[in-house]
Amino acid sequence: MPQFEFRQSAILPANPPPIVSIGLGGIVHDAHYPAYQIAGFEVVGGFDINGERAAMMRDKFNIPQLYDSLSQTIALAPEDAVFDIAVPGSAIANILRGIPRGRAVLIQKPMGEDLAEAGQILRICREQELVAAINFQLRFAPFVIAARDMIEQGLIGELYDMEFRVQCNTPWRLWPFLFPLPRVEILYHSIHYVDLVRSFCGSPRGVHAKTVSHPSAPDLRGGARSMIIMDYGENPRVNVMTNHSHVYGAEKEQSYVKFEGSKGAIQIRAGLNMNYPEGVPDRFEYILLDDRDDPSWRTLDIKGSWFPEAFIGAMASLMRYVNGETNSLPTSVEDAIQTMATVEAAYESSQQGGAPLPQV
Ligand SMILES: NC(=O)c1ccc[n+]([C@@H]2O[C@H](COP(=O)([O-])OP(=O)(O)OC[C@H]3O[C@@H](n4cnc5c(N)ncnc54)[C@H](O)[C@@H]3O)[C@@H](O)[C@H]2O)c1
User: Fold this and answer.
1) Ligand 1, pocket-test mutation among 108, 113, 178, most atoms within 8 A of CB
2) Which side of the chain, N or C, has fewer Cβ within a 10 Å radius?
3) Atom 21 (ligand 1): residue with closest C-alpha?
4) Which residues fall within 8 angstroms of residue 278, CB to CB, at 6 or more apart?
5) Within 13 A of 27's CA, how many CA atoms are on the CB side?
6) pLDDT one-digit tens code per residue, 67-97
7) Contact present, 166 and 242 (Cβ < 8 Å)
């Protein structure tokens, strides 16, 4: 059996422009900056409305300059800087209004709190001709890059089925801003899977979904468990099942994405969800039915993980587009709004409820 080689890492820009951060919270600490350190991307300045937080981040990551306000950030940022926005979804539109025409911005997901806000963000980006992408970094996780390479080489044949299952104990208290929100699980978590599916299969015709809270976390009213069926007709079958309130120990925790095709299958454990944000090791397994020697499950060694390496690809993709090194910006706001539309359909479906039982 030949040992296959698959692409696992994002293509880096030849000359990375400088980065200016707006929002210096948990995700910047856990993933953005560790990723940029690996990739050699330079952060030249940052701003957070919480001055103490900003100072902590400056000391930890040697940010050369902290700004006192959004207007100062925009005035002092180098002309060619990419603005790296990582704030709650509701704060994005106001920040974008201040960004000068034609500048580059990478915006943390979600693209606003609902489709109406996403539309507002899209309009601002269009009016100000911003080169804007949403940070749907799961598309650039090394295990996803490898799976995509394998699928594009035709090794698993026609894609029939994609399935996500997450059963873990998610520390929601890390994000106090989520608690009062009406939409949480799909909008802030499963959105990664919805977006990833779209990157492989395009937008679905429709969505069936149910999202509910959990008795152990009634104050998280925006949902801690979801079931989402993305409807593509007969093929592919796609579903996402998440339960973030699995408090029964690590042994039965699960976090995987599975791809099944006419000639093989891939199953990836995304360990990040199982002990967030440190994670447990990922596992990439695949089977190729055409393998005459031994059509059995094999593992592929993957270097890097969702945190932080996926965040290299999200930024690199925008930088390469800005530099003219590529014509494609996969997570542009123009594409990302379709992910937001899919999420909107999921909430509408959940609200409508299932088909009522006929009278007997
Ligand atoms: N894998 C992922 O893609 C991932 C994971 C976690 C969080 N996120 C996203 O990142 C965003 C931030 O999440 P977090 O975990 O860092 O939350 P956080 O609460 O730790 O940090 C948010 C930071 O933004 C700052 N802030 C808020 N409004 C601001 C404004 N107007 N200008 C400047 N700073 C402002 C806050 O002071 C805070 O420091 C969220 O939208 C979340 O969805 C993405």
Assistant:
1) 108
2) C
3) 25
4) none
5) 19
6) 999 999 999 999 999 999 999 999 999 999 9
7) yes
